[in-house]
Amino acid sequence: MDRYAVFGNPIGHSKSPLIHRLFAAQTGQQLTYEALLAPLDDFSGFARTFFQTGKGANVTVPFKEQAYQLADSLSARARRAGAVNTLSKQADGSLLGDNTDGAGLVRDLTLNAGFSLAGKRILLLGAGGAVRGVLALFLAEQPAALVIANRTVEKAEALAQQFADLGPLFASGFDWLDEPVDLIVNGTSASLAGELPPISASLIQPGHTLCYDMMYGKEPTTFCRWASEHGAARALDGLGMLVEQAAEAFFLWRGVRPATAPVLAELRRLLA
Ligand code: ATR
């Protein structure tokens, strides 16, 4: 049977094995998928050993940049992201690195939430790997304007420069912004600590603005609670993005696109 895995450290709580096993069952694909704890001091050795027999792997924290270095060739979107979350062994034995995170978020927003990004005013909070990974895909949807706001403004400015050729992209500090936008995406890791980026509630137009947290949890995240309290039309967490990025990887490996809705429903049920 074809062998797949997700590499991370830590990896114990990964939902990827469950997601990919559900995809495989649904599509009748014969494969195994396991969660593997990769050593912090030898990611590339570990990955190379796996690929002596393995067909493909997802890569999560903290190895996405190392996977980018390891790959023999890169998709355009992985090159832009500077990070790889999906490795595929090619017929000649080489490793292709791709990044399905941005496509996963865009699919969750456009297909699942029915929110078109074209012509919209969009605010992205954060300037780390999570935001970098989705910028090119967001700009490809042709928003009216995309603002990256970050606590450390210099990091937002650097990202805005690197992606400036792809569309109308601006950098900002959190407290410079007060005009309502159509979409706010939280790509900071603040939710992990139960914290909130210090942005003005006036960015939310009640009943109109969609708020999206790339994080998810059993309970609504701090950001989603804040959004709901201030009248956001919807406050969505990142579980849909997780399932969609996995579906993109599955499609890349197997050439079959699984239906994501039943898998997302099952994950929600298990989380609760
Ligand atoms: P990731 O790869 O998940 O994006 P990262 O590269 O460490 O992780 O980036 C974390 C992001 O969350 C950064 O934009 C960080 O802001 P700084 O660049 O100023 O450090 C942001 N962040 C983390 N904790 C935060 C908090 N409590 N409030 C606001 N922003 C926070």
Automatic annotation (TrEMBL):
Entry EC number(s): 1.1.1.25
Enzymatic reactions: shikimate + NADP(+) = 3-dehydroshikimate + NADPH + H(+)
Stretches assigned to the Shikimate dehydrogenase substrate binding N-terminal domain: 6-87
Residues given in the record as NADP(+) binding sites: 126-130, 150-155, 214, 238
GO biological process entries: amino acid biosynthetic process; aromatic amino acid family biosynthetic process; chorismate biosynthetic process; shikimate metabolic process
UniProt subunit comment: Homodimer.
Name the record gives this protein: Shikimate dehydrogenase (NADP(+))
Originating gene: aroE
